[in-house]
Amino acid sequence: GEACGLVKNLALSAHVTTDDDEAPIRQLCFNLGVEDVHMLCADDLYARGAHLVFLNGLILGVHRRPHALLGTMRKLRRAGLLREFVSIQLHPTHRCVNIASDSGRVCRPLLVVEKGKVLLTQAHMNELRDGKREWKDFVREGIVEYLDVNEENSAEIALSEAQLASPNVYTHVEIDPLTILGVCAGLIPYPHHNQSPRNTYQCAMGKQAMGAIAQNQGTRIDTILYLLVYPHKPLVKTRTIDLIGFQQLPAGHNATVCVMSYSGYDIEDALIMNAASLDRGLGRCMVLKKFTCALKKFPNGSAERNFPPPDASSVHKSRAVQLQRFRVLEDDGICGVGERLAHGDILVNKHTPINTRDDMMGRDPDLLPPSAYRPSPLSYKGPSGHENTYVDRVMLSGNKSESHLIKLRIRSTRRPELGDKFSSRHGQKGVVGRIVQQEDLPFSDLGICPDIIMNPHGFPSRMTVGKMIELLAGKAALHDGNLRYGTAFGGDSVASCSEVLVKHGFHYLGKDFLTSGITGEPLSAYIFCGPIYYQKLKHMVMDKMHARARGPRQVLTRQPTEGRSREGGLRLGEMERDCLIGYGASMLLNERLMTSSDGFKVHVCEECGLLARPNWCQSCRTRDHLQQLEIPYACKLLFQELQAMNIVPRLRMTAR
């Protein structure tokens, strides 16, 4: 279907099936009492108690005792005599049995329960720990069973062994409750305390968070790479974090957060940040971009070449300003590592031969004079005014079709600024609304100032109670030095975290007594304050901000170009036009839609109403009755295209 911003992720233990041979399963079904559909009449097909049997969606036959067929096939599968990924499901409403062995089904392993007891015992676990048993042994012996979505619908699955008190209710039990969730959802602490859409939002935003991406991130050259300079491992983690090694390559910071209102710059999820924390490296990131330049070979033997930067003594004074563009180049015509870049600087001084097709007449292509080449340099395009951009790495390679391939990695270091996007692990996203000096922020009696101030109105409607518990657990982890677990359907309890806080002299619910940094007076309420793991997302205002006064226009319509990369204008669309019409601002409409866009002066004949040349109407063969109008160029283009289709629009002129 159409993309709506939601992407499903595989669960941790999920397995996608491959094709199995149908012939043995078909023969087994016939041996177990399935009657071939080709040998039956209509009365047999619709007889009382008869159930249709389907194999991979194709009708196989009829069985009169479907429960016996179901039980026998499951026993064969648990005994290892049938492939573990073959599923069988009884659908009593439709009176059919569905057997599936095809590819593309998502299966999940579960522990088998018989007579209210799990078949897995402690002896099995000891054998696994000693290396005497493997995963496939559990599957072959029927202790663990793979179920697909269809078979799960008819199974009763318990979250834990504690739910198996009543016998003959449950058929399976989860290996661990965290296996229900995938990798993205498994990183969320206390997800079972959040409203479900918030966990879904975090699954999408967790992929946008900056952090450490790999052990070789210092040597690889990607198209674009966002790296956090000082990543932290979270104080409140989950068992999934331990399993996947997220702590080795984290993506976020443990920021001290105060939940309070501080000026009007924190409404609608905006965040107020401590300027001193930003100076110390909170949220600081590096953006690494790749620039590629290929020196091609041509059929006549010539090839593109790099030329050294022009000598200042050989350039006329009028062109001395252009020499600044070549300042980062070395003698080989390639920029040097460690050079600071500005917008428009030339990175590779590439030149292309003017003659690329004709025969070289026996001349050596490498000995062509500079006049036989035209410049086609690779230049740097980046945010103007951003001076922390450097050449990080230069790599040279080549292949048969290209004499050289030059790859450049450009490094840009950024600190958080107004408009940058941050998010906690609970789908609570927001942009930086204000950056305040530390001396103006509230502080506790221990001298602790918050890194981030968050508006409390973000909690009631979102119902992210997991974020509150994370703050409490993180505060407890700070004071006793032990990381806390917020694993789904488990983890450290609120009571245990609160007891640690009380033991160290803090409020049971994590609230602190703060003093205003502006007035020096105590705040009139206790403030919920503690560490929360915040992610910096890749959406930064420096990559998105755009404005234009004058700029390039399209060749065909003479209207401003579109898009930030082409220095385009901001479109006044149909809805904005409707608002201005309803408001009655006709002069503003005229100025936006024509004067500032594609106004064009034309001559129109009053007699025939057609567009004319200056001082001459080709249709009437006269220079009388001409009037000059200003219309949009797109309107004039439309008239001419309609005339090419033998549709003649005419302008009727009336005296004012």
What would you note in describing this structure?
The chain is an alpha+beta fold and 656 residues long. The protein folds into four domains: 15-175, Hypothetical Protein Ta0175, Chain: A, domain 2; 191-215 and 243-284 and 424-536, DNA-directed RNA polymerase, subunit 2, domain 6 (Dna-directed Rna Polymerase Ii 140kd Polypeptide, Chain: B, Domain 6); 286-414, OB fold (Dihydrolipoamide Acetyltransferase, E2P) (Beta Barrel), CATH 2.40.50.150; 599-644, DCoH-like, CATH 3.90.1800. Helices cover 20% and strands 24% of the residues. The protein has 16 helices and 34 strands. Strands 1, 7, 8, 9, 10 and 11 form a six-stranded mixed β-sheet that branches. A six-stranded mixed beta barrel has the order 14-27-15-25-24-31. A five-stranded mixed β-sheet has the order 2-4-3-6-5, with helices on one face. Strand 22 (389-397) and strand 23 form a beta hairpin. The longest helix has 16 residues, at 465-480. The protein is extended and about 100 Å long. It starts with 14 loop residues before the first strand and ends in a 12-residue tail after the last helix. The mean pLDDT is 90.
